[in-house]
Amino acid sequence: MASSPACTALLTEHLRCTPLTIIDDIINTTNELLYHSVAAVETYLLTSAPSSLGFLPPPGTIRDTNSDGTELYSDAETEELEKGIHSLETLLESAVDRSFDRFEIYVLRNILTVPEDLVPWVRLAHHKNLDFKTLPASTATSTTTTPTPAPPAQEAQTRLRTLRQTLLASHALNQTLRKEVSANEQTLAQLRVLVSTSSGENPFSFVTPTRDAAAFAVSQVDLIRQLVGALRTKYDAFRASQEAQGVKMEVDG
Questions:
Q1: Residue 65 in 3-state DSSP?
Q2: CA angle in degrees (0–180, nearest 5) for 141-143-147
Q3: For 198, which DSSP code?
Q4: Where does the secretion signal sit in this chain (predicted)?
Q5: Could you tell me the pLDDT band of residue 144, with boundaries at 50, 70 and 90?
Q6: Cα separation of 165 and 172, whole Å?
């Protein structure tokens, strides 16, 4: 029987990850070991003498060797080895997938599970001192009918679910804040190094306060206008002298 959403939520809160995440980690670790094993087999085969693996040169020919005198595989022999290694890898992958499919079903049904009727009664370590209403035990004796939860039980389950969601959100926020604190500490450390190596001078002298920069810019507006006016007067005089000499000047508007 598959785990109920309430059971999955409870285990996720307790383990800080979903049950499937744990199983996936186990399967991924197994696959990594599988690939390492296949790589080791491939290395062994390619570094072995061809004759030790049953590869013999055609009659009347001599096998090529490298500078160390080690016999080399021909292209056809190398291709045959690669096909064999690929077949071995495929066979092992199929065996792992088939076996771990059964493993996943067994673990989810028998290990990483909580009986559904016990889920409302489970109190985790961080639930201590939380005010939960006592859940009444089922008074139904018939096995053919499904008992209807009493209103207090429904209210307690709703409250527990809300508290769990709040706890998970708080945990996520805590992780985010920890990352921010770590980043800020690194920035402060860099600034302290900058200050300590400034030999008494202000390392931030190049930084101009925004208010001072704005005031300086405003104070320069009148001066800029005066300079523009003076330049315009000189330009008009220069233009008039050029036109008097018969030189026509065009100005892009």
A1: strand
A2: 65
A3: S
A4: none
A5: very low
A6: 11
69: left (phi over 0), alpha (psi -120 to 50) or beta: left
Q: Give the phi and the psi of residue 59 in degrees, each rounded to 5.
A: -55, 135
State mean pLDDT over 8-27.
Answer: 85
Cα–Cα distance, 222 to 253 (Å, whole number): 24
Q: Assign residue 73 a region (left: φ > 0; alpha: ψ between -120 and 50; beta: otherwise).
A: beta
- pLDDT band of 210, cuts 50, 70, 90: low
Nearest by Cα to 27 from 89, 100, 106: 100
Mean pLDDT over each residue of the chain, to the nearest integer: 75
What DSSP assignment string belongs to 203-250?
A: TTTT---HHHHHHHHHHTHHHHHHHHHHHHHHHHHHHHHHHHTT----
Q: 3-class SS at 161?
A: helix
Hey, which residues does 161 pair with through a beta bridge?
none
Q: 101-115, 120-134, 183-197: which has the highest mean pLDDT?
A: 101-115
The pTM score is 0.47
Q: What is the CB neighbour count within 10 angstroms for residue 232? A: 10
Counting Cα atoms < 13 Å in the Cβ hemisphere of 18 gives 8
- Written as six digits, the tokens of 214 are 């704005």
For residue 226 the two structure tokens come to: 């005066």
**CA atoms of 158 and 241, how far apart (whole Å):** 92
Instruction: Name the amino acid, one letter, at 59.
Output: P
